[in-house]
From TrEMBL:
Record-linked InterPro entries: Cyt_P450 (IPR001128), Cyt_P450_CS (IPR017972), Cyt_P450_E_grp-I (IPR002401), Cyt_P450_sf (IPR036396)
Keyword annotations of the record: Heme, Iron, Metal-binding, Monooxygenase, Oxidoreductase
Binding residues annotated for heme, in chain numbering: 350
Record keyword Secreted present: no
Bilayer-spanning residue ranges: none
A GO biological process held by the record: secondary metabolite biosynthetic process
Protein source organism: Corchorus capsularis (Jute)
GO molecular function: heme binding; iron ion binding; monooxygenase activity; oxidoreductase activity, acting on paired donors, with incorporation or reduction of molecular oxygen
Family note: Belongs to the cytochrome P450 family.
The keyword Oxidoreductase is annotated on this UniProt entry: yes
Protein name (Swiss-Prot/TrEMBL): Cytochrome P450
PROSITE patterns xref list: CYTOCHROME_P450
Amino acid sequence: MGSDVVSRGYLATIVVPSGDQWKKMKRIMVDELFSHARHQWLHTKRVEEADNLLRYVHNQCGHEGGGGVVNLRVSAQHYCGNVIRKLVFNTRYFGNGKENGGPGVEEEDHVKAIFTILAYLYSFCISDYFPLLRGLDLDGHEKVMEEATRVLAKYHDPIIDERIQQWREGKKEEPEDLLDVLVSLKDDNGDSLLSADEIKAQIIDIMLAGVDNPSNALEWALAEMLNQPEILQKAIDELDSVVGKQRLVQESDLPKLNYIKACAREAFRLHPVAPFNVPHMSMADTTVANYFIPKGSHVFLSRLGLGRNPKVWDEPNKFKPERHLNGAKEVVLTDPKLRLLSFSRGRRGCIGMVLGTSMTIMLFARLLQGFSWSIPPNEGGRIDLSEGKGNLFMAKPLVAVAKPRLPPHVYPC
Ligand code: HEM
């Protein structure tokens, strides 16, 4: 990916990084924010948000726990937003939040801005190819991006500025979240390694990276499973045999939940969040298989072309988690052979793979363990699996009836 393509990437929403800046930020991401040790350090915060997800859905089941209609898109996006906000800012809410554990107006606004930026990140923009047109905003993208970035900045910047001040004044000495980690990094001279603008850009990058993939996978997978109840039952049977009903599923259980992981992997294969991977650019003439790719070409990997390739996948349009089980001791969400594109691979591959995997599987496992799901009576016995116009989300957000299936004392109060 070259610098001009980088400029369409997440970081460009505030600053366009130079090559050195990009390398520095990437190193910080890999070594400081998403290392194995850091993942362990942040465990309690992830558990708090998995518990809150359960509380939020449980609260929608009515006082007697008789069952309630739940919007899975809102629940899943809210959980992902919460996890990332908690890891970065040590808070679930920018405002007062809601007593039932759901999103307040601020969090709805925040997540909406994230999805707006992501939609435009992947879209064709004429000034990417004719930079002289920048500023004329012929397709209106710059205005939309500026507004969405302004929304993110409205919530992030006051927290970041205050935190920098606290560290400067010695009011903080021990890191408690990823923002503290970024603020407290020092260079060889003992000066701050990152400027305020760099921290703000890095945090937008993290916010954008973590929310869309897990929530979209959950929504599609559950919709497919509701239409094929035998798959739903197998996933529940697995949870009952690995975890039981007397305690909540924890991260330490996730490696054993192969069927659930196969369901998530199948959702990434069949229902990727976007048709293409983020754009890459060839830095030199190169040949891949039979294709000659001249230096400077923009390279788009088709997620749909890979995941639904009939030469690789039997019945490619069918949701069939079993296809990922054959012989695998432990199912993983990534595919090093790129037969499907989940986290991609190589130098540009996803840095947040471990976090992304645990968020995704926890989201699936908690919702499936905690509740019996059924199709709302007014849906005619089948969830409509149409894709949206101009995107790959479900055309209509998934709504399903949830009934608690664990003893009352197991749910977090
Ligand atoms: C299931 C969840 C996730 C999936 C499927 C996923 C997938 C991807 C993909 C496909 C890319 C582009 C790779 C390429 O250009 O070839 C990417 C990049 C990236 N992801 Fe993830 N991701 C997930 C979660 C996360 C999380 C939770 C974080 C961190 C908060 C994260 C951080 C990043 C970053 C920083 C990049 C940019 C890497 C670079 O350009 O060098 N991802 N991810």
